[in-house]
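User: quick one, fold this
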Amino acid sequence: MLAAVLLLRNTVHMEERQTMILAVDIGNTQTVLGLFENATLGGHWRISTDATLTADELRLRIGGLLGLDGLSWESIHRVVISSVVPALTVAYEEMAERATDSEPMVIGPGVKTGMPIRYDNPHEVGADRIVNGVAAYAALGGPVVVVDFGTATTLDVIDASGAYLGGAIAPGVETSAEALFSRAARLAKVDLEAPDKVIGTNTRASVQAGLVLGEAVMVDGLVRRIWEELGTPCPVIATGGLAEQMTPLCQTIGHVDADLTLKGLIAIYERNA
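Assistant:
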C-alpha cells in the first residue's frame, strides 16, 4: 500500500514537472523569459543580455528569478530557446541541460514551426522573427504584419496561408539614439519620450521628435508600403521592449502584445513535443 502511494506521488510530481516550460528569447540587448504551465504564461522576466555569462552564472541568475515566485529549477521540465546571440545560445543550452536533465529545444533548422518560409535563404531569418510570425498568425490569422521594437525595429509579413514572406529591418530607437549621441559632440543624451509636437523649440524636444516620432513615422510608412505590395490592408501587431511606448504614436498598429515571442515559443514547443 505504501509503495503504491509513493508511486502515485512520484507520478503526480512528474506530471506537474512536465507542464512547466521555461521559454527564453535571447535578444541583442535584452533577454525575456517566461514560465508556462499548461501553455499558460505565469512568471515573466526581462533581463539585460550579457554575452560574457557562463552556463553556471546563467543557472544561478535564472534560479534567483524563479525563487522570486517560490519556484526552483526542480519545477522546470524543459527549456525552449530563441536566440540571435550565438555565444549565449551555447551557454543557455548547457545551462538548460544541466539544470533540467533534458536537452533544450532551440528554434532553428530541424524544428517544426508549421510556417513555410519564403525568404531567399531561410537560414538568414532570425529565429525570433519566425517565432513572432507563428504567434501573430495564431492570434490574428493572415495576412498580418509584426512590428518588433527592439535593438532593431523589424517588420515581418505573414500571408493569408500562414507563410513567412519576409520584411524590413531598421535601427531601433535606442540604437539610433546611441549612434547619434556618439557622433554628434554637441548633442546631449535625452530621454526617449515623445514630445508634444514635431516642431521642437529646444534641442531636447527636437532630438526627441526626430528619434521617437521619426521612428513612428518610419514604421507607418513601411507598413503602408507593405499593404500596397500585399494589395490589401491587414492587421498589424507590435511587440518588443518599446512596443507599449511606440504603439500609441503609430497610426497603423492596431494590436500590441509584449509577450508575443514567448507565446510563439510555447506554440512551437507544443508542435514538436
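User: anything notable?
Assistant: The chain has a mean pLDDT of 88.
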